[in-house]
Specification:
Length: 156
């Protein structure tokens, strides 16, 4: 898959949050812990719920990509963990998201991985598609998380 080396570099950059996206570490690690369970009237989810949604969706995408026997949770409820979190729960979720991204980076970096090969257990999905899905989904919700942070800090 030597001809995919440039594509691999672009995907790694995308997952790192460079260029047009905020990186995960900046968004999540710098979030004020006293605000993780707060709500804003105009938002249906707390910061914690958004973080957990990112974790749950990303985990499902990675497991689907690496384990043909994986069964996805029920949509949409299986992708949300509603409620209140402790600081250790926030940190554990953030660590799992980071670990998942490391897993994807390792898959992308492996020259033996064909980014364009369809998964035998899917219906046309490729690793390229799954990585783009993670990057897009994470970016969208990290943007929401940053907007919540600004709003909550302004209300504070």
């Amino acid at each position: 898959m030597e001809n995919q080396s440039s594509l691999r570099q672009h995907l790694l950059e995308l997952l790192e949050g460079r260029s047009a996206h905020i990186d995960l570490e900046t968004a999540i690690r710098g979030f004020p812990m006293n605000l993780i369970n707060e709500r804003v009237e105009s938002s249906p989810h707390s910061p914690w719920e958004l973080l957990e949604h990112i974790r749950l969706a990303q985990s499902d995408i990675i497991l689907f990509s690496t384990d043909a026997a994986h069964t996805s949770p029920e949509f949409p409820d299986g992708y949300w963990n509603l409620g209140i979190a402790s600081v250790p729960e926030w940190e554990k979720s953030a660590d799992e998201i980071s670990g998942g991204l490391d897993t994807l980076r390792a898959l992308i970096s492996d020259d033996n991985t064909d980014l364009l090969a369809e998964f035998p257990h899917g219906d046309g999905q490729t690793l390229l598609r799954q990585v783009l899905l993670v990057a897009d989904h994470n970016s969208y919700h990290l943007g929401q998380l940053m907007q919540l942070k600004k709003t909550l800090e302004a209300q504070g």
